[in-house]
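Q: How do we represent a protein-ligand complex in a form that can be generated token by token?
A: Start from the inputs.
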Amino acid sequence: DAELYRGWGGELVASCYDEGTGAFMFICVHSTVRGPAAGGIRLKAYDSPGDGLRDGMRLSRAMSLKMAICGAPLGGGKAVIALDSARGDVSTGQRGPLLERFAALLASLKGTYYGAPDMNTGPADMDFIHARSPYVFCRTEERGGSGSTTQHTALGVFCSILASAEFAFGSRSLAGKSVVVQGVGEVGAALVGRLVRAGARVTISDVAEDRVAKLAAEFGVASVAPEAAAATDCDIFAPCATGGVLNARSIPELRCAVVAGAANNQLATPEDDARLHERGILYAPDFVASAGGVLHGVGLELWRWSEAQVDRAVEQLGDTLLEVFAKARAERIGTHAAAEKLARAKLAVPRA
Ligand code: PHE
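Then emit the structure tokens for the protein with phenylalanine bound:
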């Protein structure tokens, strides 16, 4: 689809097809202005290869903003391994050959793009890929990598919620505040733990019922059906699943004061930023709120930071958000637009 490329503004897409699984793979390099492109390797089923490509391209653009806003010497990229939704999940035996095929595609780019964990991929997969093509972040600690990004991503989202609460409610205290966490995968689940310890009243939802049951048992939190999550009455809505949850249909139904979560590409279209703004809902731009994972990988592996230094940088995402909120208020624009302005200023300057 030509329109896909026209509106993207990125540099290149490398792609291939895996006979064995019927999966298409796309490595989308959005920008190398600040350095080699980097971003997660997402393993997900799509209804069509085009859907996977579209997702990868959009996610790679968001990564350029994420890298810029957190000062990483990297550009934006994303890899999507698009499984055929008609064929269902890959078996354990198919995963190796599939990732081998991916590693070959990655190697062909010779360092133009670096991969990292994302939805359905983790440090063990990074070890496997690295053995064949060394362009990845976040291998296991045993293999000399920085390991899982989960805890730092969740910390960044938690600090984003605190900053949003400060701006919206005048207090960082979450005691008694109601929070709906949509999607309790690794990051969502880690976030729930932090919220519960901070005294928030948490409600969770997920398409995977076993995950909901496990967390409900562990923390005694309430749950709501996935399709009802966005319209649930609460103080803070935290999308931590897939993208596009904030759209023309869902925004009028929101019954929250704040949206702050870990999901990438929460806005379905750029206009949704204005829709939230008009409704008076404070939105923590996703590429800021979810930047903790990048700070983990880049901080520990490129900047040789200590854990404590990474923690501090991740906590500072909250300060960045307060700057974003103030700019949005002063310029009477949406918060995503304000954050994008701040990020673009850094994108224009190579290796700021
Ligand atoms: N999955 C991470 C994200 O979406 C990507 C990432 C992590 C990139 C760590 C580099 C280092 O932000």
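The chain has two domains: 2-63+75-143, 150-290+318-346. The longest helix spans residues 49-69.
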